[in-house]
Amino acid sequence: MGTSTQAYGEPWYWDNRYSSESGPFDWYQKYPSLAPLINLYIPRHVHPRILVVGCGNSAFSEEMVSDGYEDVVNIDISTVVIEAMKKKYSNHPQLKYIGMDVRDMSEFQSGSFNAVIDKGTLDSILVSAKQDAVFGID
């Protein structure tokens, strides 16, 4: 029997998960499928500062940097994954990783970012939209 989804808000759940899973994990969508939307709403030429909440160990932010974004700040509740990502991307100054609970971002001043990406929400919306299209729901 699996762990209850009620544990998703608990740091210990994610620390345990990332301690046992070493490879990158994306829930549904990977950066290439979301890039057209991101490029449309967050143009690279304005050099935006972007916050990615709940970054996990996804390759999403790395792929954003490869696509030309220069300032991507990643936060996650799991200190295990943040330390692993800091180590993995230590030679990428465009990527910053901070252990933080999205429910308390008082460390950041208002207006610190040009855009905030919650990829988990994007995944949910896109999966729901695909299901709606399949089932003919308007």
TrEMBL record:
GO terms for molecular function: S-adenosylmethionine-dependent methyltransferase activity. Residues 51-124 form the Methyltransferase type domain. InterPro entries: Lys/N-term_MeTrsfase_sf, Methyltransf_11, SAM-dependent_MTases_sf. GO terms for biological process: methylation. It comes from the Eukaryota. Keywords: Methyltransferase, Transferase. Pfam families: Methyltransf_11. The keyword Methyltransferase applies. SUPFAM superfamilies: S-adenosyl-L-methionine-dependent methyltransferases (SSF53335). Belongs to the methyltransferase superfamily. This is Methyltransferase type 11 domain-containing protein. It comes from Populus alba x Populus x berolinensis.
